[in-house]
Design a protein that fits this description.
The structure holds two protein chains of two kinds. Chain A is 26% helix and 26% strand. Chain A is built from nine helices and 19 strands. In chain A, strands 5, 6, 12, 13, 14, 15, 16, 17, 18 and 19 form a ten-stranded antiparallel beta sheet that branches. In chain A, strands 3-2-1-4-7 form a five-stranded parallel beta sheet. By secondary structure, chain A is α+β, with helices and mostly antiparallel strands. Chain B is of the alpha/beta class. Chain B contains twelve helices and twelve strands. Chain B is globular and about 65 Å long. The chains are: A alpha+beta, B alpha/beta. At the A-B interface, helix 2, strand 3 and helix 4 of A face helix 10 of B.
Chain lengths: 367, 374
């Protein structure tokens, strides 16, 4: 088994458990930054010298071979550039999900299989179960740490070849305690929260550096110009902060970004209730294993639209290539580019990258 | 584990390990009491033996912590002295040097140095004419070149470059870290003003090296303090390390002819096999270090190739790694005009047996084939 070791607590304990389980384990740290020589400052990001060293020291303690593999080019292309392109297209991407899809469980897994490994072991909080139709992806025991959302994009073939040893750990605190017991110096290392390639957290600045300025209009739902902006990539659906509008809102209530339109360089704003979405849909669908037969005729599920959002009841149905999801109650904060992950209980049924949404107040009313 | 990375560090010689185990505690060689005098005697005895092995005078041997320090002292020390004495601020340097040289030159560029880069051919051999032309322009503070490419193994035109340096009146530094002990080399006969060597490349301890400094070379120090070693390298001297380095050097020279013949024959067999493999190219010149077999594999991942050989029990090099452990793209291979190929350096040493080479010859083709499929 090939243990992907980020230098964090979770992947260290996952690798240790793989060794304890009697597997022949090799550790690998992925260098994802173009400048791997950088030292850590403030919060933890991927790809620093210290993270590579922390991972290496865990491998030393476990007595397993350890390598640093350079996936920085693939990462720059498949994750960072994708992130920039998606924002430029007025969408809101999830780079962690993309990294799982294209780097950890594609580029790395392909190489691992090619080199003769059976599985890739990671410190993700999620569980793979073997159901009647093949592998199934489920939420981890610790719902607070559950990461099945960012793994929802994996295929059955990919799930066959991964193992998440932290699946059944009741809480993250126990993982930390186990790391300390095992003598790992990184036991108290802080969790990573930021996007690893934007360690200072300034996403807007990062995008502005790469996309420059492309001024345009901020309009209301009727098309009246209420302000200007320096580039559509600075805006995400549902955003309120940073809207400096010259024209007061007609009813004096706060306005939110309703839509980002890169082709006309327009940002559409409106009242909070206009954010409510009655339908979300997209064609980039994956099934986390065998496609559930109920999707063809329509099935009652729960849908989750962000890594830390609550799942809400919805009806999902495949209409041709398009997966259409109608939340039972209108949903706010939905942006195109996001991944909508479907759950049936703890099981992940799959996900879709949202291409379009239908606002609740403009949706056809049920007869 | 079969060791095919002797050029990174060759195992410590049995005699050296024994001498290390038997070593008496030594006083500070700078102390004037009798215990200090005994340590001083051990130190100077070692320096004289090293000087003998290097073809230099004992006064010329400045002990350092290894090759990188020696190279930094040679280049920075010479450049500072030339600048302060108004002799020039340019550095003549081939593009395929070791990172110790490249990075020291880059640092000096930030201090105002003008780097005059000299190209290499498809075998990583320095263009001696271009080197001479860069010197003839005038205003050079120092010139530097490897004795042999530490990656590809090709021998460099030391004679021609030394002549050109002498004509221009510019001190020449030779980076002999990877070559000393593997090819005949007498400092006094090279015409160089400075020469760097390191102990761990010939079976001595890690962390010991020397810079040979000709008596007339003008040099400023990197370290300041007690003024040891002509004021060029202040700091308490490592008498034990020096004596172990000297022992390794004497043994290496004593067996040089026989080992060079034996290892050249073995590396020739490796290269002959490699040349038959699809996608493999050889870069070394005809005249090369006897113990290095270097190849590049087109369309392969160097990380995968190294992993497959490591897993099969062969320690090999796929290039130098940065501080995070990422193998850097080889500037030497790139300078040879090869892009996007995985370099593989197989370096042999005195512990290498014919059976180990046979095993490598069996393991190499499937590993190369598999790495090209990934």
């Amino acid at each position: 088994m090939l243990a992907a070791m980020s230098g964090g607590v979770d992947s260290a304990v996952a690798a240790a458990r793989a060794v304890d389980a009697g597997h022949e384990v090799v550790g690998v740290h992925l260098a994802l930054s173009r400048m791997p020589g950088t030292l850590r400052t403030g919060s933890r990001g991927c790809c620093t010298v210290e993270d590579a060293m922390d991972a290496r020291r865990v491998a030393d303690r476990l007595g397993i071979p350890f390598y640093v593999w350079d996936f920085s080019e693939r990462f720059a292309d498949a994750v960072v550039q994708d992130f920039v392109d998606e924002y430029a297209a007025g969408r809101t991407p999830n780079p962690c999900l993309r990294c799982n899809e294209r780097i950890k469980f594609e580029a790395l897994l392909d190489r691992a299989i090619g080199l003769g490994f059976d599985r890739v072991v990671t410190g993700h909080y999620a569980r793979v179960e073997h159901g009647p139709a093949g592998p199934e992806l489920h939420r981890a025991a610790d719902w607070a740490k559950d990461q099945s959302y960012v793994l929802g994009v994996l295929t059955g073939e990919q799930l066959e070849h991964c193992w998440f040893p932290l699946a059944d750990t009741p809480t993250k605190a126990e993982v930390r305690a186990e790391a300390a017991e095992r003598g790992f110096l990184l036991a108290q290392k802080p969790d990573s929260h930021d996007i690893c390639f934007i360690p200072d957290g300034d996403t807007r600045g990062f995008l502005a550096e790469r996309l420059g300025t492309a001024p345009g209009e901020i309009v209301d739902r009727d098309g009246a110009v209420v302000g200007t902006h320096e580039g559509v990539h600075g805006y995400t659906v549902g955003q309120r902060r940073g809207l400096s509008l010259g024209v007061p809102s007609p009813d004096g209530r706060p306005r939110f970004v309703l839509e980002v339109k890169p082709s006309s360089r327009q940002i559409v704003v409106g009242p909070k209730e206009a954010l409510a979405v009655a339908r979300l849909a997209g064609t980039r669908v994956s099934h986390a294993g065998a496609a559930h037969p109920g999707l063809a005729a329509g099935i009652d599920v729960e849908v989750q639209i962000r890594a830390h959002a609550d799942p809400v009841p919805a009806r999902a149905q495949l209409e041709g290539d398009e997966l259409v999801i109608d939340p039972v109650a209108p949903l706010t904060g939905v942006a195109t580019g996001q991944s909508a992950v479907l759950y049936l209980g703890t099981r992940v049924l799959g996900q879709v990258t949202i291409d379009r949404t239908v606002a609740a107040d403009r949706a056809p009313q049920p007869a | 584990m079969h060791e095919f990375d002797h050029a990174a560090a060759t195992p410590m010689r049995e005699s050296v390990r024994q001498a290390l185990a038997d070593a008496e505690p030594l006083a500070n060689p700078a102390s004037t009491h009798r215990a200090g005098q005994r340590a001083r005697a051990v130190l100077e005895d070692a320096r004289e033996r090293l000087a003998g092995a290097l073809g230099a005078h004992p006064t010329e041997v400045v002990l350092t912590s290894g090759g990188t320090e020696s190279i930094n002292l040679a280049l920075k020390g010479s450049w500072w002295a030339a600048r302060d004495e108004g002799r020039g601020t340019a550095i003549v340097v081939p593009v395929a040097e070791h990172h110790a040289t490249l990075d020291a030159v880059a640092w000096l560029e930030a201090q105002g140095a003008e780097a005059r880069w000299v190209g290499v051919d498809a075998h990583a051999v320095t263009d001696a004419d271009a080197f001479g032309a860069a010197l003839a322009t005038g205003g050079a503070a120092v010139a530097t070149m490897l004795v042999a490419s530490n990656e590809v193994g090709s021998l460099q035109p030391v004679g021609a470059v030394a002549d050109a340096s002498a004509r221009a009146g510019v001190p020449l530094h030779l980076d002999a870290v990877g070559a000393f002990g593997h090819v005949p080399l007498r400092f006094a006969e090279t015409g160089a003003a400075l020469m760097s060597v390191a102990s761990h490349k010939i079976g001595g301890p890690h962390g010991v090296g020397a810079l040979v400094v000709r008596r007339d070379a003008r040099l400023q120090a990197l370290h300041h303090g007690g003024g040891q070693q002509r004021g060029l390298r202040s700091g308490t001297q490592d008498a034990l390390g020096a004596s172990l380095f000297a022992l390794a050097a004497e043994e290496a020279l004593a067996e040089l002819d026989a080992e060079a013949t034996r290892l050249h024959e073995l590396t020739t067999r490796i290269l002959a096999l490699a040349a038959t493999l699809p996608g493999v190219r050889l870069l070394a010149a005809e005249e090369r270090l006897p113990h290095i077999a270097h190849l590049v594999v087109e369309g392969a991942s160097g990380e995968a190739l190294q992993f497959l050989l490591d897993e099969a029990g062969f320690a090999v090099s796929n290039g130098s790694a940065c501080s995070a452990g990422v193998a850097r793209e080889s500037h030497v291979v790139r300078a040879c005009g090869v892009e996007g190929a995985a370099p593989l350096r197989l370096s042999l040493g005195r512990t290498t047996t014919e059976a180990e080479v046979e095993a490598l010859l069996a393991a190499l083709p499937p590993a190369v084939e598999r790495a090209r499929r990934l």
